[in-house]
């Protein structure tokens, strides 16, 4: 009874051992020379294969930089100083950016149309009437599809609302692509004032649906001395290039929907 | 019939009449995946020839001197897969060093030869049909040459239809599958040829 099992194990083990030894000898003999730059560069890159640089992974990007002269400043998570040290050229990595969810409608603030609990994917919930159970059709569905795809574990769902941890976020853009409501923006990490709503409905409808919503009143537009805010389609937008962080918009906003981030 | 005639007829038989891709529908994944350019298709076909020939030779001896005497025929699949995987690794290591451009062009399809059903199919077919060593070699070389022939023809077709006006619905993979179907019909024309 036991003998055939043992012989089977032994035969497979012997075959495996022989193959293993042969392969290791062979790989030692045919060792390909790797550019030491590539290895070093690979070690300072993010290492999470997030794909934010547009290449298939960190290995592919390191190869592309060393052998094909790809732009060395594409990795959002790597320290540009280290990369320039390795490559011997000055790399000005782009300004640090973070993802930002343009919604503040959590379970407390937003009214519900119905209960919707037979899925855990926002992209399915989005297909339901009113783009999910929240009364606001533009709001965060809150099932955390963005959190699932985040390679840096930077998104948490708190009270049915996705919140990005700006410390962990590397702005790779995976969540932006996956959010069915297109709620997530990539903004400069030093952007201080942001509009935390993306509802395009008129003021009354917004107020009915959510305690925290931009009603498109335009008070912020008049309050801003720099002309950085525009209201179109009942929603305010802040041009972060023009913003001087004076904070007047947040003071004047009647719905308190312009938020100071830090 | 001496060995030379038998070898040549066997190659023609397995490469054209019983073509592995187009008549037996094995190894479709690399057939569709790596047939974009003729040069990579030739590289892929050559690697498959090397892997199939070596693997069926080795598995023949493993089968005859280890599995059958020890009554372990049921372990065939697992033992063969190990040998095939090792051979693919070998080919990969050698290609990486000797022909980096081909290694890069083959990309993920090179390790995928491991799971190319044509490779395992040939090895298992030989054992199940009880082929001798000569027949095994004829079968494996013929089959893999058939794979090379069909993937190179396919790559040629794809290179030529690249700039054709293809209806929007057929762009990309659908037209490739249609072409493969037409090729299969053409290859079925060989079925009337018989050497026996």
Helix content of chain A: 25-40%
The largest inter-chain interface, given as chain pair and residues per side, is: A-B, 15 and 20 residues
Q: Quick one: CATH class of the largest domain in chain A? A: Alpha Beta
Shape of chain B: globular
Oligomer: heterodimer
Largest sheet of chain B: none
Radius of gyration of chain B, in Å, reads: 18 Å
| Main structural class of chain B | mainly alpha
Any overview of this molecule?
The complex is a heterodimer of chains A (262) and B (196). Chain A has 262 residues and is α+β, with helices and mostly antiparallel strands. Chain A has 3 domains: 36-87, Electron transport complex subunit B, putative Fe-S cluster (3-methyladenine DNA Glycosylase II, Chain A, domain 3); 95-190, 2-Layer Sandwich (Alpha-Beta Plaits); 192-262, Alpha-Beta Plaits (2-Layer Sandwich), CATH 3.30.70.20. Chain A is built from 10 helices and 8 strands. A two-stranded antiparallel ribbon of chain A has the order 1-4. The longest helix of chain A has 28 residues, at 2-29. The radius of gyration of chain A is 26 Å and the shape is flat. The mean pLDDT of chain A is 83. Chain B is an all-alpha fold. Chain B is built from 8 helices and no strands. In chain B, helix 4 (76-98) packs across helix 5 (100-106). The longest helix of chain B has 30 residues, at 38-67. Chain B is globular. The model of chain B has no long low-confidence stretch (mean pLDDT 87). Chain A binds chain B through residues 4, 7-8, 11-12, 15-16, 19, 22-23, 26-27, 30-32, and chain B through 62, 66-67, 70-72, 75, 78-79, 82-83, 86, 89-90, 93-94, 96-98, 100.
């Amino acid at each position: 009874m036991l003998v055939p099992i043992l012989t089977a194990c032994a035969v497979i083990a012997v075959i495996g051992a022989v193959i293993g030894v042969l392969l290791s000898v062979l790989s030692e003999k045919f060792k390909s020379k790797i550019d030491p730059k590539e290895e070093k560069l690979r070690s300072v890159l993010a290492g999470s294969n997030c794909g934010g640089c547009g290449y298939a992974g960190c290995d592919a990007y390191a190869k592309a930089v060393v052998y094909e002269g790809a732009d060395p400043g594409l990795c959002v998570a790597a320290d540009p100083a280290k990369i320039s040290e390795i490559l011997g050229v000055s790399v000005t990595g782009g300004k640090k950016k973070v993802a930002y969810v343009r919604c503040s409608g959590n379970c407390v603030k937003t009214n519900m149309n119905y209960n919707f609990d037979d899925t855990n994917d926002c992209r399915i919930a989005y297909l339901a009437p009113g783009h999910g159970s929240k009364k606001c059709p533009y709001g965060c569905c809150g099932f955390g599809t963005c959190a699932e795809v985040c390679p840096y574990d930077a998104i948490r769902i708190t009270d049915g609302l996705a919140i990005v941890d700006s410390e962990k976020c590397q702005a790779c853009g995976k969540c932006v692509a996956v959010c069915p409501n297109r709620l997530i923006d990539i903004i400069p990490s030093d952007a201080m004032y942001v509009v935390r709503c993306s509802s395009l409905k008129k003021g009354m409808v917004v107020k009915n649906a959510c305690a925290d919503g931009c009603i498109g009143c335009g008070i912020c537009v008049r309050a801003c001395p720099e002309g950085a805010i525009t209201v179109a389609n009942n929603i305010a937008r802040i041009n972060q290039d023009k913003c001087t962080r004076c904070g007047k918009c947040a003071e004047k906003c009647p719905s308190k929907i312009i938020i100071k981030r830090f | 019939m001496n060995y030379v005639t038998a070898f040549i007829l066997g190659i023609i038989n397995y490469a054209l009449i019983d073509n592995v891709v187009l008549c037996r529908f094995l190894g479709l994944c690399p057939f569709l995946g790596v047939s974009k350019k003729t040069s990579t298709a030739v590289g892929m076909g050559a690697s498959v020839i090397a892997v199939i020939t070596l693997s069926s030779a080795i598995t023949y001896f493993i089968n005859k001197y280890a599995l059958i005497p020890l009554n372990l025929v049921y372990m065939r699949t697992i033992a063969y897969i190990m040998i095939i995987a090792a051979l693919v690794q070998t080919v990969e290591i050698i290609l990486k060093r000797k022909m980096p451009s081909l290694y890069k062009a083959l990309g993920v399809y090179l390790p995928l030869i491991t799971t190319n059903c044509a490779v395992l199919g040939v090895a298992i077919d030989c054992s199940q049909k009880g082929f001798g060593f000569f027949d095994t070699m004829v079968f494996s070389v013929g089959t893999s040459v058939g794979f090379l022939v069909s993937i190179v023809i396919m790559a040629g077709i794809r290179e030529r239809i690249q700039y054709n006006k293809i209806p929007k619905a057929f762009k990309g993979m659908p037209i490739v599958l249609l072409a493969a179907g037409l090729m299969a019909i053409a290859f079925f024309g060989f079925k009337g040829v018989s050497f026996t």
